[in-house]
Amino acid sequence: MDKDQSIKIKNKINKGFVLVSVFDKRGIVNFTKKIKALGYEVISTEGTGRKLAKSGITFIPARKVSKNPNKLKDCVKTISFRIEAGILFNRLDQKQVKEAKELSIKPIDIVICNFPPLKKVVKNPEDFNIKNIDVGGPLMVRAAATNFRHVLVVVDPDDYDDVIDNLSKKAIPYEFRKYLAIKAFSYTCFYDQQIIQYLRKYENFLKRQH
């Protein structure tokens, strides 16, 4: 395979599934409508799904993709083999592509995700708990950013227009994919730093709960 062909394959646009799970819902309805118009199918988590449904946007509930039991809802929502595999598998590895098909893994080619700032959900020490610390969101974002050569990851609504512009073309430049990945890792890094700050802030309270 020559270099030009290799770049074309790596930059090509896959029109599989888009996973949407956002706390900051600015522009998400209009963005999702444009995504669907481009031929993508949308998978949405429960909270974001309610917003989309109010605007008449159809989607696949994330729980139907994850096949997680409807238990431990505050602990496990989007963490699942099926979702993470759909994000992480290598689209250029024919063995992985075949295995994904055999397992009916939906290829998630775009992840739109952001999570609640801790300062908005943690008002006192008691709020610093499993329910209010996002685990599944950062996991999805990290997975998509890790596989950025094949998966677009969007954590900032301000990038929606640029994403649509690029998706409307025949190929997505490597530099744009990398830009989104760097932004995503910076976002999860900042989120982790916030958690560290709260652990230190509430150290005495957490000791009493131990």
Major sheet characteristics: 5 strands, parallel
- CATH level-1 class: Alpha Beta
Q: How many distinct domains? A: 1
Helicity range of the residues? 40-55%
Query: What order do the helices and strands follow?
Result: HEHEHEHHHEHHEHHH
- Name given to the CATH architecture: 3-Layer(aba) Sandwich
CATH topology-level fold name? Rossmann fold
| Cross-sheet strand order for the largest sheet | 3-2-1-4-5
Write the CATH homologous superfamily.
Answer: Methylglyoxal synthase-like domain
Mean pLDDT: 89
Strand content: 5-15%
How many DSSP H or I helices?
Answer: 11
Rg is: 18 Å
| Strands, total number | 5
Structural class: alpha/beta
Give structural attributes.
single chain, 210 residues, alpha/beta, Rossmann fold, 5-stranded parallel beta sheet, 11 helices, 5 strands, globular, disordered N terminus
Characterize the structure shown.
The chain is α/β, with parallel strands linked by helices. It has one domain: Methylglyoxal synthase-like domain (Rossmann fold, 3-Layer(aba) Sandwich). The chain is built from 11 helices and 5 strands. It has helices at residues 3-11, 28-37, 46-54, 62-66, 81-88, 94-102, 118-121, 136-146, 160-167, 174-201, 203-209, and strands at 17-22, 41-44, 60-61, 108-114, 152-154. A 5-stranded parallel sheet has the order 3-2-1-4-5, with helices on both faces. Helix 5 (81-88) packs parallel to helix 8 and helix 8 runs antiparallel to helix 10. The radius of gyration is 18 Å and the shape is globular. The model is unreliable at 1-10 (pLDDT under 50).
